[in-house]
Every structure is written in structure tokens, then in C-alpha cells.
Amino acid sequence: MRASKGDRLVQHGRVVGQHDQVSEVVEVLGSEGNPPYRVRFQDGHEAIMSPGPDCQVKHHEERDQRGGLADRP
Q1: What contacts 55, CB < 8 A, 6 or more positions away?
Q2: What is the pTM of this model?
Q3: Which of 27, 32, 56, 65 could cross-link 38 (Cys pair, CB 3.0–4.6 Å)?
């Protein structure tokens, strides 16, 4: 998994009824885009994450091609 500053990290819900958590990568702490990442959640708090298999990176370039930042938290 590789991410860049500005990418979105989507952590999928693990149980029925649990919503996905979306955060923005504000700093890449690993080398060459690898984890860990400093992320900012929708409520403004920040955390250091090393995403697992239940996470997906939405790259900044992909969002721009779909018409801007409409999916921005």
C-alpha cells in the first residue's frame, strides 16, 4: 500500500451496520509512500495509522479525474 499527502484512506466497516471511516493523509512517515501515515479524520482529530487489509487508498489524482473533490470528507 502506497499513499501520498492529500490521498484519502478508507477503512471499511468490519461488522454489519458499521460505516466506513474516511481520513485524509496529511503526512507519510514511511519511505517511498509506505505506512505509517499521519491522517486527519472528518471530526478534525489526527492519528498515526498503519493500514491493514480492510483499508483502501483513494489517490488524489483519481479524485481529480472524477470531477474534483466531491467525495472529500
Answers
A1: 1, 9, 10, 11, 12, 49
A2: 0.76
A3: 27
Burial (CB count within 10 angstroms: exposed 0-12, middle 13-18, buried 19+), residue 36: middle
The span from the CA of 43 to the CA of 10, in Å, is 15
Give 52: exposed, middle or buried? Use CB within 10 Å, 0-12, 13-18, 19+. Answer: exposed
Q: How many helices (H) and strands (E) does the chain have?
A: 1, 5
Q: Facing residues of 25 across strands?
A: 39
* β pairing state of 46-49 and 8-11: unpaired
